[in-house]
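User: Teach me something about this protein's shape.
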Amino acid sequence: MADAIENVESGPVEALLATGAGKMQILVYAIIPQVLPEFITLSLYQWELNFRSATILGIVGAGGIGFELVTSMRLFMYPDMTTILIVIFIMVTIVDTISSYIRMKIR
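Assistant: First, the predicted structure itself:
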């Protein structure tokens, strides 16, 4: 996110400074509009990554749906395992679809 702030174009900032705008006005009208799409995109990416990582962490023993998946595999409960895999697949698809929709609306 720091890279997004560093890459802010100086033109709008200089234009607002030339009109006598204060620091808060520069932040609201010049910096945030340039940085907000990048912040939202990075936040959505992190959300997707955390969702997928939660399953992996559960598999190695941290609990959650990954733990249920491993337990059903160890107990040879294949219908339960299949259901859990389907739920994970559906949830990852939903998260990805929502994220793609929000990114499309931002741009």
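Now, about its shape. DSSP finds five helices and no strands in the chain. Residues 23-62 form the longest helix (40 residues). If you'd like, I can walk through any region in more detail.
User: That's plenty for now, thanks!
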